[in-house]
Amino acid sequence: MTAQSATAQRHRIVVIGTGFAGIGMAVRLKQAGYHDFVVLERAEDVGGTWRDNTYPGCRCDVPSHLYSFSFAPNPEWSRTFSPQPEIEAYLQKVTDGFRVRPHIRFGHAVESAHWQGDHWLVHTSQGDFTAEVVLSGMGPLAEPAVPKLPGIESFEGEVFHSAQWNHDLDLSGRKVAVIGTGASAIQFVPAIQPDVEELHLFQRTPPWVMPRPDRRISAAERRIYRAFPLAQKAARAGVYWTRESTVLAFAKIPALMKLGQRVAERHLQEQVRDPELRAKLTPDFTLGCKRVLLSADYYPALAQPNVEVVTDSIHEVTPTGIVTDDGVKHEVDTIIYGTGFRVTDLPVMDMLHGRDGRTLREAWADGMEAHLGTAVAGFPNFFLLIGPNTGLGHSSMVFMIESQIAYILDALKTMDATGVREVEVRPEVQREFVDRVRSSMRNTIWTRGGCSSWYLDAKGRNTTLWPSFTFRFRQLTKRFDAAQYRTR
Ligand code: N01
To answer: Sign (positive/negative) of CA torsion 295, 297, 301, 302?
Structure first.
């Protein structure tokens, strides 16, 4: 036993993170009769990415009825696409309603986890924990990606990332540079455009934007959902299957994307009358290659006189602005990064030390991979939620998370039923699964659509998304197969 572990708190299970993954896992553990667990959370409240992303206009681009746990329907959603405060409040309500909060240790940032031969030693900013099993709910959209712009240290104005919004700064009357045009930027740009004096939008690649069919859910509808939960279940199923049908275009027959692309082209045509601006905003890749964005107010905001869409590359930042490659200096006093997250370069990769002290980064030297996106060879009794190749471009991550939770619970039950203390996925099982995923990936829009995106790693491989139907993933994770694991 190491010096650190002498004072460690012992628990059977350590869960890391309190986003949808960590909270869902904790609820299901309790329901399954596992009570000896703690949930470690670096922040002071639950919510994960839905706690951190508070930028103006932040909302979900997956319909509300599907963006919730199957075991905790919410008849109170106010809109068909929920605003961030409602999703954060929903997660808090689930945490309290299922009495998970007493298990959570807030302000405990996990700094490392080491496999000790027969248990894990988890080192946090506020002490150590030992556990038989570690479950990571550290999502991929947690660590902001901030580009190293030449000269940024000399900038005299305010700088922040969309996931760390500076609410103390009044943007009215300011000259703002927004860098990036992804899912976050297309939501906050229209929200801040009316207030700022000037908005310079630095666009590297124009995204495809579809109309967002958002509407208020009336009080009468909410009464129906409260009184007849089956009605909301039916609405949820309708959304699920509509979304699921789009997998055909994303992952099976990418040529079908051209149909959707026409809708996006028409949307751009209708909302942007100026041909020069429209040309700047027209993507040169097939719809779906990057995340399909939904917005009713992004294009109209860009057509306003206080907005300039800058398509020349950023050359350098000066104390008072940004100079682009064409030599033009854009005078600004605020820079907002809408530059996304470190998805394929996760901090957990350096924190986690498996068998023989090997880090996850070393294990993933050739790219992120895990059996069923959940178990990694060399890391016994460790399971990842939202691991490699479990992300979605078309539907709700909560569905994938619930599939993984069920799989992990079955693993725990199998261990209990058979007296097994240690499970570690066999490398050849992981290899076979990953090879199948990679082969399915070849014919997807993400690899054939003619774009680069955060879905791809440095080697151009898609190690983030699930290349098939989500019900297929659910089938694969339905049962934990001990034969696929080395057991002790
Ligand atoms: O980040 P992104 P995001 N110089 O990575 C640009 C989820 N989400 O925060 O396209 C200049 O999509 C980059 O340009 P390019 C969702 O899964 C969900 O917007 O790489 N530009 C791009 O335009 C989403 O996919 C919701 O050429 C630079 C942008 O920054 C994920 O979060 C809402 C640059 C980054 O776009 C991330 O979205 C919001 C540089 N050095 C977000 N580096 C829901 O509603 C990057 N860019 C569920």
So the answer is: positive
